[in-house]
Design a protein that fits this description.
By secondary structure, the chain is mostly helical. 78% of the residues lie in helices and 0% in strands. The chain contains 11 helices and no strands.
Length: 266
């Protein structure tokens, strides 16, 4: 039964969305401002996007961010998929509760605590802060999200397909790559996109674990905003918002498609 929204509900919805997204919309609009003054509208212009791509410092930070995002998301996808397989396929093994808590801890723990604890760990093992420490920190942060996405797909997986393959003589490893992996591939891709998006967006954990030559774009934007707003920062932020939005929408669509396929198979 379809329920009509009341005027109060519609008003609350509009005000809520305006509160959440109006500042972001203003930032995007002012990234096309022709004036150098970011609070004075000087007409539509894309000149600051051109200036952004000529800014070697910002482009260098963007390149570092992309490399860290791709590498950490790849590592998180592999580790998160293995964790999801262990939690789904091996039932109640000794230490399962502790293992589950450790996997999901970064999801609920404040980022300040995660960043500080990782910093202390890297200092304890005498690992210099830089590209690899940020990559490992982002892998720790995003692995739990990949585990959640892949575990949800495995929970509805039809095990009879694997049993049929093994009955026909396929060994477990070949069954995994020929049957299991293709069927859970959409959820793995969704987990990768989600991990990549979270890595692009992270500021707190990266600021604790970064070092020389590993300044990410969010850190660069934050350091420049403290000195004053500029139209180039608006343009860089708009591109970052676009990438994050694209990643979240893609991950959501792939997850929904995977869920629909699971319901059809059930």
């Amino acid at each position: 039964m379809t329920r009509r929204l009341s005027v109060f509900n519609v008003t609350s919805l509009v005000l809520g969305f305006a509160f959440l997204y109006l500042p972001i919309l203003l930032l995007v609009v002012y990234s096309f401002n022709g004036s150098r003054l970011v609070t004075v509208w000087g007409g539509f212009s894309t000149q600051w996007y051109g200036a952004l791509f000529r800014n070697e410092a910002l482009m260098g930070a963007a390149w570092v961010t992309l490399r860290i995002g791709l590498l950490s998301a790849s590592m998180a996808t592999v580790l998160g998929t293995l964790a999801a397989l262990a939690l789904t396929r091996y039932g109640r093994f000794p230490g399962r509760t502790l293992f589950t808590g450790m996997i999901y801890a970064p999801m609920v723990m404040p980022e300040v605590i995660t960043g500080l604890s990782l910093l202390l760990f890297f200092v304890a093992v005498d690992l210099d802060r830089g590209f690899w420490t940020v990559t490992l920190a982002h892998t720790t942060l995003t692995m739990c999200f990949v585990t959640v996405v892949v575990q949800a797909r495995l929970a509805t997986f039809d095990r009879s397909l694997e049993e049929a393959a093994m009955d026909l003589g396929a060994p477990p490893l070949r069954t995994f790559f020929a049957v299991t992996l293709p069927l859970i591939a959409p959820s793995i891709v969704a987990g990768f996109l989600l991990a990549f998006t979270l890595s692009l967006d992270d500021l707190v954990i990266a600021s604790f674990n970064t070092g020389p030559g590993a300044t990410t774009l969010p850190i660069k934007i934050y350091s420049q905003v403290r000195l004053g707003l500029s139209p180039e920062i608006n343009a860089a932020s708009t591109i970052l918002i676009g990438l994050v939005t694209l990643g979240v929408i893609s991950a959501t669509l792939i997850s929904k498609r995977s869920a629909l396929r699971s319901r059809r198979e059930a």
